[in-house]
Specification:
The complex is a heterodimer of chains A (264) and B (255). With 264 residues, chain A is α/β, with parallel strands linked by helices. Chain A is built from seven helices and ten strands. A six-stranded mixed sheet of chain A has the order 6-7-8-3-9-10, with helices on both faces. A four-stranded antiparallel sheet of chain A has the order 2-1-4-5. Chain B is mainly α. Chain B has two domains: 1-30; 42-250, MetI-like fold, CATH 1.10.3720. Chain B has helices spanning 3-29, 39-84, 86-101, 104-114, 119-144, 148-155, 161-198, 204-214, 218-246. Chain B is globular and about 70 Å long. Chain A binds chain B through residues 52, 55-57, 74-77, 79, 81, 83, 85, 87, 89-91, 100-101, 103-105, 134, 136, 150, 154, 160, and chain B through 147, 149-150, 152-159, 163, 167-168, 171-172, 174, 247, 249-250, 252.
């Protein structure tokens, strides 16, 4: 088993008053250990459903989801999640928010070690000195950083990021991309990133999966070479070419461009 | 003025201005005290009957508080059932709204007949019936509008439903709960006094009001109403104090 996450031929439909609404149909995604896969696709194509499948929050109607060689049957504590909405608990301090997963996941860490780990992560994302603040006292970008720390505090095998930077302004977003790179170096994880931002996908991920329109299947897979953490790399001809390919694939997924020969 | 002092001085000043305005209005209109008693009429009523006010006031207060505690327990339970289950929400809403729409004054004689002689129980029951509705609705709305991400964050870690309730759903609902409790406090007083006035049994401020009526002691009747208002304010501020302890996080700095 070389892949930490394996999604094989997954099919899923939601029950609606007007009958079943298929959202995923023939989805394949594989993420090797330590890999970071970005999933892009048209709006409403079932990207978020994918995160819920990997987290074990829902079961696929057909197909299988494997994590670390085990079939996913329900929620498991080896997953960390962060959403577009940072969903911090307003009545807790930032530090206590980050420590929340440790109250649920069985851990061998002492109380002191837990707090040290949370403080270390907050320092890593640049939130040192904000440990005792309430979420309402932080900006949107800072809240998202805290949410990231919470997703990582219990050392999950898999990090699922569902458009975590989607609601941030462009500058804050680029800041957070760089923070992500820093975090990944210090705390290696296997990750799935759902995003609408193609530049984000090629900057952060080492593979980009393009989903087709609903019901979504894997339409295209782009391997991204490792090009360092400099944000300037997004403005090289190499990046421009990748972005052009992805943009074309999204247009195909939206049904706005014809499918070319040889495209998977 | 320090913020602390202002917090006490401003409402106090408002009360004093209200009393002066009231006194002036009665004087200017030339109302006799059987039409409208003035604050200066109330002082003799309080000094003459202060012992009765203490005893009766306490009876009203404790029955209101017990009714309110019952309303919190039952209201939270109903709210939880409705908040977590859509079917129960659809089933219970019309019943609750219908029950709430019935004037409680009409329920008083029914209750009085049903449990003849159980005065304390009857009074607590009416106080409860009139005040549980806002609590049930606020809890049910608080729970049913919990963003799914909050649930997912914990569920993805394998947390049980009860863990999700205690760690997220309950604290997140507290601001709404306290908002409803402030409404329920005053409602519970209305309930207690309905029973005390409509079904006289010689206890509580309602009974004192009733005896003022039979003796044509109009200042006493007004004095009872003001005493009720004072008790209502007292209980309200106790709720505000509890809110600042348990849900103070929801208050934002004014700006």
């Amino acid at each position: 088993m070389t892949n930490l996450i394996e999604i094989k031929g997954v099919r899923h439909a939601y029950q609606t008053p007007s009958g079943p609404l298929p959202v995923l149909d023939g989805l394949d995604v594989a993420v090797p250990e330590g890999g970071f896969v970005a999933v892009v696709g048209p709006s409403g194509c079932g990207k978020s459903t994918l995160t819920r499948l990997v987290a074990g929050l829902i079961k696929p109607d057909e197909g299988e989801v494997w994590l670390h060689g085990e079939k996913v049957k329900g929620p498991r504590s080896t997953v960390g999640m962060a959403f577009q909405n940072p969903v911090l608990l307003e009545w807790r301090s930032i530090l206590k928010n980050v420590m929340l997963p440790l109250e649920i996941v069985p851990t061998k860490m002492s109380r002191k070690a837990q707090e040290e780990r949370a403080r270390y992560l907050l320092g890593l994302v640049g939130l040192e000195g904000f440990e005792d603040k309430r979420p309402s006292e932080l900006s949107g970008g800072m809240r998202q950083r805290a949410s990231l720390c919470r997703a990582l505090v219990h050392k999950p095998e898999v990090l699922i990021l569902d458009e975590p930077f989607g609601a941030l302004d462009a500058f804050t977003r680029e800041d957070l991309w760089q923070t992500m790179q820093k975090v990944k170096e210090a705390e290696p994880f296997t990750g799935v990133l759902i995003t609408h931002d193609l530049r984000e996908s090629i900057y952060l991920a080492d593979q980009v999966v393009v989903l087709s329109g609903r019901p979504a299947r894997t339409q295209y897979v782009l391997d991204v070479p490792d090009r360092g953490h400099d944000i300037e790399q997004l403005y090289t001809p190499e990046s421009a070419e990748m972005l052009a390919i992805l943009r074309h694939q999204i247009e195909v997924a939206q049904g706005r461009a014809p499918v070319e020969e040889g495209v998977a | 003025m320090s913020p602390r002092l202002r917090k006490i001085a401003v409402p106090l000043a408002a009360v004093v201005i209200f009393l002066i305005f009231w006194e002036f209005l009665v004087w200017a209109m030339g109302w006799p005290n059987y039409k409208m008693a003035s604050p200066s009429d109330l002082v003799p009523a309080y000094t003459r009957y202060w012992e009765l006010f203490l005893v009766m006031g306490w009876q009203t207060l404790w029955r209101t508080v017990v009714g309110l505690i019952l309303a919190i327990i039952v209201g939270v339970a109903i709210g939880m059932v409705m908040g977590f289950s859509r079917v129960m929400r659809e089933a219970l809403y019309p019943l609750l709204v219908g029950f709430n729409a019935i004037p409680k004054a009409t329920v008083v004689p029914i209750v009085a007949l049903m449990f003849v002689g159980a005065h304390d129980f009857n009074t607590v029951l009416i106080a409860f019936m009139i005040s549980f509705f806002p609590i049930a609705v606020s809890i049910s709305i608080g729970l049913s509008t919990l963003e799914p991400e909050y649930r997912d964050i914990l569920r993805a870690l394998g947390a049980s439903q009860s863990t999700i309730f205690w760690k997220i759903a309950l604290p997140k609902t507290l601001p709404e709960f306290f908002g409803a409790l402030k409404v329920a406090v005053t409602l519970a007083f209305i309930g207690t006094n309905l029973m005390e006035i409509v079904s006289p049994h010689g206890r509580g401020l309602g009974a004192l009001f009733d005896s003022g009526k039979t003796n044509s002691d109009y200042p006493l009747m007004f004095a009872v109403l003001i005493a009720l208002a004072a008790l209502g304010i007292l209980l309200y501020y106790i709720v505000v104090w509890l809110e600042s302890i348990f849900a103070g996080w929801a208050e934002r700095a004014p700006g």
